[in-house]
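Figure 3 (text version): structure tokens given as input.
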């Protein structure tokens, strides 16, 4: 019989104990294998166990395989020397890390710290350590902990802070007023420019019922219906619009606003932002400018009427003078003719010479009167635009110039002459004057040559030209060419009244065209002009 008071183990009991111990060991081994698998598979961070030795040093008793990715050292290297990990702590963070660890050890509380890690290749990253100290019976302290790489989180936080700082700088530094209200129209935030504009501090704005408190009555319903409900809550933005504000001192002033809505994840309005600008000066300037324009328009109307009246009087005067001069000139010419018929033989040679000059001057005076009449008519005559065959028109002018004269010796060369949309009779006068001038100033040349043609300008317009190889002129005096009675050559050298080019210039201007000349003394001249419209 077994004595229950016998302290020595019985065979059956020992065997059972061994079996149980074996099962427990196997279970522990399986559990340890599972934990090792979990630890090795934990890629988000490093699991470790650290012992604080009496001499103050540290020794890892366990490090997961992720130490290789986080610190660039092997598990064996970390287990052999804890400084392979501790030595990577950034020099600027070491003091704070040691202070936090010492405090956790002193109070036996959780250690939490974020620090920069300098990798073996020189890269800097951020890590977050969390560990719990456990005092062992032998007096040693074990730290069970985990480390996470929080570099991306830190970079994101930095980006957020920088973005927030940029926003704050923009918000605070903007010269325009910026205001934020909640979905009920209550003020949430406003920058200094907005507060200065409305005369309220931010704290005072927050005490107001809503933004309508600073809006004149005449604007409130429209702003509620159209701006708030239809645009901001419906569309999410307003575009630029104008209204008025009431400053704290009661002054009403115009503002220009642009607003938009910030919605939450569910699509509900969270905040409504507005950008406001005081446009008092602009409105005042617009009113002054409008008044100036009204005055200017009135003045222009008056001056135009005065100028038109003066032009009519001048045209009428020129026409009347020219017309009235023709009768006495015809009478003088008639008297001179009678004298020549009846008394020329009785006049001495010197008198005859003077008599000839007198008749020539009367003839020139008659031509001058005719030119003045033509000039006056070109101004008074309304434009009758039509599609003009330029080639036929120029040929007709050349034929009239050479018919019955000794100008057959002048060579005329016709190039391409596109049709144009112009007043045919007035355009004929232009070609008549330009071609007669070309003939007149080149006829002394042994091989007189007049070339007529066209070319395309850089602006794509047709430019007609008349080129001669005559005496030319000094370009320093080109500005005088198109003035009435302006001549660059003496009357004794070349006949003329000084009206022809002025008349051509006037006609070209009436067609919204341009006319100009190029020349060189002794080498001829070329006159260019555009007529405005081409036939389509």
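Below: residues designed for each position.
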């Amino acid at each position: 019989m077994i004595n229950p008071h016998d302290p020595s183990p019985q065979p059956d009991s020992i065997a059972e104990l061994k079996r149980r111990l074996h099962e427990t060991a196997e279970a522990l081994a399986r559990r340890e294998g599972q934990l090792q698998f979990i630890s090795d598979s934990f890629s988000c961070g490093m699991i470790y166990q650290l012992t604080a030795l009496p001499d103050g040093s540290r020794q890892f008793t366990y490090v997961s395989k992720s130490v290789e990715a986080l610190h660039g050292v092997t598990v064996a290297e970390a287990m052999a020397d804890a400084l392979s990990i501790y030595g990577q702590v950034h020099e600027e963070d070491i003091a704070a890390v040691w202070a936090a660890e010492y405090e956790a050890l002193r109070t036996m509380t959780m250690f939490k710290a974020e620090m920069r890690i300098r990798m073996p290749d020189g890269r800097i990253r951020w890590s977050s350590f969390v560990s719990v100290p456990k005092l062992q019976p032998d007096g040693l302290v074990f730290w069970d902990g985990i480390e996470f790489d929080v570099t991306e989180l830190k970079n994101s936080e930095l980006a957020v802070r920088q973005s927030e700082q940029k926003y704050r700088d923009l918000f605070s530094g903007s010269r325009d007023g910026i205001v934020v209200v909640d979905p009920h129209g209550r003020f949430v935030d406003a920058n200094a420019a907005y507060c200065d504009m409305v005369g309220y501090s931010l704290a005072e704005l927050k005490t107001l019922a809503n933004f309508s408190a600073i809006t004149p009555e005449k604007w409130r319903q429209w702003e509620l219906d159209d701006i708030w409900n239809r645009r901001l809550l419906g569309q999410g933005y307003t575009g630029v619009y104008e209204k008025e504000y009431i400053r704290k001192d009661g002054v009403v002033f115009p503002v220009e606003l642009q607003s938009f809505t910030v919605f939450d994840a569910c699509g509900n309005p969270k905040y409504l932002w507005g950008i406001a600008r005081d446009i008092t000066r602009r409105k005042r300037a617009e009113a002054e400018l409008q008044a100036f324009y009204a005055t200017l328009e009135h003045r222009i109307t008056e001056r135009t009427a005065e100028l038109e009246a003066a032009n009519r009087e001048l045209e009428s005067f020129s026409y009347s003078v020219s017309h009235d001069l023709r009768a006495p000139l015809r009478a003088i010419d008639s008297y001179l003719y009678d004298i020549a018929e009846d008394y020329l033989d009785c006049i001495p040679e010197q008198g005859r010479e003077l008599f000839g000059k007198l008749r020539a001057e009367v003839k020139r005076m008659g031509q001058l009167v005719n030119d003045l009449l033509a000039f006056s008519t070109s101004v008074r005559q309304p434009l009758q635009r039509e599609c003009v065959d330029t080639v036929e028109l120029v040929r007709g002018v050349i034929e009239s110039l050479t018919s019955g004269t000794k100008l057959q010796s002048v060579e005329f060369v016709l190039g391409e002459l596109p049709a144009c949309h112009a007043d045919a009779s007035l355009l004929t006068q232009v070609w008549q004057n330009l071609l007669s001038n070309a003939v007149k100033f080149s006829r002394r040349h042994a091989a007189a040559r007049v070339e007529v043609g066209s070319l395309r300008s850089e602006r794509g317009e047709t430019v007609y030209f008349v080129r001669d190889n005559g005496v030319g002129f000094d370009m320093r005096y080109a500005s005088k060419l198109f003035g009435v009675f302006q001549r660059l050559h003496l009357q004794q050298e070349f006949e003329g009244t000084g009206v022809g080019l002025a008349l051509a210039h006037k006609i070209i201007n009436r067609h919204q065209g341009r006319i100009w000349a190029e020349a060189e003394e002794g080498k001829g001249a070329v006159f260019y002009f555009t007529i405005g419209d081409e036939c389509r």
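The chain has a mean pLDDT of 82.
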